[in-house]
User: What shape does this take?
Amino acid sequence: MDYHEAANFLFDLRRYSPRAGVASTERLLGHLDDPHADLLPVQVAGSNGKGSTARMVERSLREAGLDVGLYTSPHLDDLRERILVNDRRMRKGSVCEFVDATEEYITERAGAGESPTFFETVTAMALWEFARADVDVAVLEVGIGGKHDATSVVDPVASAVTSVTLEHADVLGDTAAEIARDKAHVAPSDRPLVTGATGEALAAVHEVADERGGVLTVGAADAADAADDRDEAPDVTVDYHGREGVEGAVTLAGPDWSLDARLALLGAHQARNAGVAAALVRQTLHALEGGSAGNEMVDPDTALRSGLRNAHWPGRFEILSRDPLVVLDGAHNPGGCRSVAETLAEFDGEFDDLHLVVGAMADKDHAGMAAALPPGEVWTCRPDVDRAEASDALAAAFEAVDEGANDGAGDGGSRHAPIHRKGNVPGALAAALDAAGEDDAVLVTGSLYTVAEARTRWTRLHVPKRVDDLPTAEAVLRDANVTDPGVWRMRGKAVHRTIRTRVRVRQAEYLKQEMLSLGGECATSGLSRQDEEPADVVLSGTLAQFNRLLEKLDGQPYGLSQLGDQLRRRLGIRTDPDTAARERGYPWADGTAVMGILNVTPDSFHDGGEYDAVEDAVARAEAMVEAGADIVDVGGESTRPGADPVPAAAERDRVVPVIERIADLDAMVSIDTRKASVAAAALDAGADLLNDVSGLADPAMRLLAAERDVPVVVMHSVNAPVDPDVEVAYDDVVEDTLAGLVERVLLAETAGLDRSQILVDPGLGFGKSRHENFELLGRIGEFRALGCPVLVGHSHKSMFGLVGADEDERLAPTVAATALAAARGADVVRVHDVAENVAAVRTIEAADQPDDG
Assistant: This one.
């Protein structure tokens, strides 16, 4: 079974069940031999904040040394985003295995009118995957309510109701109390249910949870101070200190603990979510003490500090631009919109006018959302899903709220003018950005579906494919889930310029129609998404055909004009080259730069112990620069397999004296470190570039790079130092590595760097097999899709054992790989032997431009 067939089967399942309860999910899991029986689940319910809270819990538990599964919904781009194990999404092959194991059963149940729904089936798939991965903890975001939700087949070790507002009244009830009672059924049997609910909702939560393990409340610190009765005060208090740069500052305190932390997610509401998450994490770790988890866990406070600061969650007050300020937030009800407005108020004085792009589902309280959102110019739009509300209806809701406010009858008091009606999200976003000045702000909100479409403006990858023969063409098409007939028809024609991208269904249909009319070729995914996610598209043709296609896209609606601009830049058609790197004087601006490796360590894999004396290191740096090195990369900690971590103080003592001595050489100086404190000391000593093999695992690293305005290397790394016992499976190592890197690039951009300053490194040797390392090397040009300079680090690595090179025979294949990388578009190569590799790079440049000499 191919992936598109498996995904189509899931998407074609019905969305709503005529029967309440978890019996259907239990039967499906019984067919799979009850994979959830031995899981240790954490269940997170609530009207708002449950996804963010689940992410905070998952990340903190991973920081505690545990293997953690995370199940959330909906997804922004890909079905498999819903199911993560240690932050890696479920493999396509695993989805196929699950459908193979369940298709016959589900089809039989459908014949009896008892087919499980899409959500019930995907929930079962998540639990099945977590059991196969043998995770220590499974964190589950509840879908709707709690009592009858598919996730409630589990017996949670800890659970929460983050907040309660009026929603899904047709399913959960007409009052906050009714809704709270339903949600409170996620309460564990022997531990308190954690909740941030208040008022009548909190009272209703007590009615249900007091009969089980009780209730542990989370609330603001000032509420505790104001409480007349100690029993009325929150058990966990949250004191939000506001925004510090792109992070939030918070103090959390329980009966016998207190914690100061930074939050990756901004806003007082996220601080409350952090309080709920902290309580859940502490309960879970307490349950695991002396249990079966085989990993060595760190203490809860350390895990929470690091976890909360690293718990990035796309589409939750996500800042994607600063000039103008662009914020994406999936708030979908009045409570969520009020939280967005409060968080945006923290930027008071930092922008002039506000421009709102709003798209919502038809079953939401549009008037309440409009009243809760801050004043500004409005563009209403309709996300590309069946359940979405028409833009005219949304505009009418804003107009009615404003009229009521002007008449003194409304409670919103906001004024939204003018109000524009746009038919689609990309068009509304483009119009808002065109209207916004550099000192304005643009807020995209109303639904995660709206956010998902808007977000593709920053995340969509137009991946150039090297297609020289029929087998390669066939592989490219199959990777995009093209059907067998489509592969057979298309493969012989995909030998010109070929681009793979991911667009909305309407855009895919237009692209295919127009490209075929021009004599080019276009193949689309066989995945019938049911409006759930974008479509993969492979376009192939001559540059002239692409040029005519892009002319047709100019001025078209549905985001096609903006898509054309992106494709034009990627194909280099009538565009000026990016001059940012050249203006900054970066050595990779005009060709492939050579980075020389200088390890001042006793244990690095190739040259450990050779240059740990300062004088020897300085002499080595001077020799590399004399041989043509453009960059000298100084490292004080080995990341070879099995290497022991080095304390920050010891690492600083190794690298700082060397950097101080070589800072005046005619080359950039790079610091190879995973620690922001070491990086800061290196920059003070004269370093020019940060090389982080952990992919910005230390959240302070990206902030440091932005503050000092220095470039940073972001590597794709499953674990650094390399853990040889950790095996990683990929569907396609290049596509999966690209998907991992794009989110890290966005984090660096959010901190204030532009893409000319963010070098991406696919991480050869880090969590990849020898064959996968060679595939990354051979397809290095595809990483240009990220719009960042590309660094390749391959020098003397064990991957060359695949071509028969022993440890002391890897110079020749290293030089050959350098030539291959340079020929295929690498901007920087990181090597030990500078002279030989400089010669390889210069040879490639001479072959490409023989007349430049």
Observations:
- Residues 463-571 form one domain.
